[in-house]
Amino acid sequence: MTTTRGLSHKAVDLISKWRSVLPGSREEVGAPEPPAAETQPPCWDDQWSPDVYLEGYETRVWHMTHRPHLPEEGEGHLQATLVRARPDQSHRAVLHIHGWNEYFFEDHLARVWQDLGYDFYAIDLHRYGRSLQEGELPGYTDSITAYFDEIDAAVELIKQTHAQVVLSGHSTGGLTSALWADARPGQLVGLVLNSPWIDLQGSFLTRLLTPPIVKGLSSKAPTVEMPKAESDIYIRSLHQAFGGEWSFDLALKKPSSNPLRPGWLAAVVRAQDRVGEGLDIDVPILMALSARSSDPKQFEDEDVKRTDIVLDVDLVAPRASKLGWHVTLVRIEGGLHDIALSAEPVRLRFFDEIRRWDAAYVAGPKAR
Q1: Is residue 15 part of a domain?
Q2: CA of 190: how far to CAs of 214, 232, 363, in Å?
Q3: Is 359 among the domain residues?
Q4: In the chain, what's the furthest Cα-to-Cα distance?
């Protein structure tokens, strides 16, 4: 993927458009007084319910104590949704965290982990997928650590019936997973990162703006919807409706993606800065990336279905050394941004790498 150190003319033009939609003063976007603290403690639904998106799966909703704290959204609680492939029968489990503009739909990924002897769970984070409620800003957060409460709750619930937990994360879910694992030593036995978005440089966003600009916009109007020049090529390359292999709900994983907002971008930049400072994750890590990135301009480009067209993998890869004391980095030829959704021979290699890593560093003879 071609990268630039400075901002291109296209980037300058787009940033000018962004500034044009910002309010004229801080007073116009002053933060409202936060709502009074809730007295009801956070809680899970009383029981698991059949999932409406995947046959054979169940969901359970985590009702959070704090309100959205966003006047645009009105009143109400945030919620997260835990998804599981039933039934539970192992002492080991994996918890998967989706990426930006995502929700969990990858039944084939769950079956890979089940074949390894893990019970499979996934979480749709608040304001995403199954958890998104009417009136909420899709995907918005002003801090990646805001997801920690629901991940804590999910891991605690899983550990009621499972002695060991592996965390898995894709893209922004990989960034979130890495920060959570660093902040929660002793909770996991392994961490799998599928194209984690742990460095901004080289991505689409990097070619448009720099972190100081993102943070400056965020300080003025964190939730304003910014003009964007984002392509729908990636989602079209995946979905059956456009000739891809996969079937998923286009209302939850949108071709045009979620609106970009300065507060969210600033949250990502701060989290990536934290990775750049160096983490100390205390379990073995498997990090998988495509062998190559590209920047196709047309859907028909051959690279659309054999490279990462979202991240610059050559700039993300060196950050593997910043994650922890034991990191296995795998570069997979032909991999898409979500390697688990790549062409069958490619994703099978990724799954083989998971099996090899699990046998060597996580499961071991005692766990078998």
Answers
A1: no
A2: 33, 34, 9
A3: yes
A4: 64
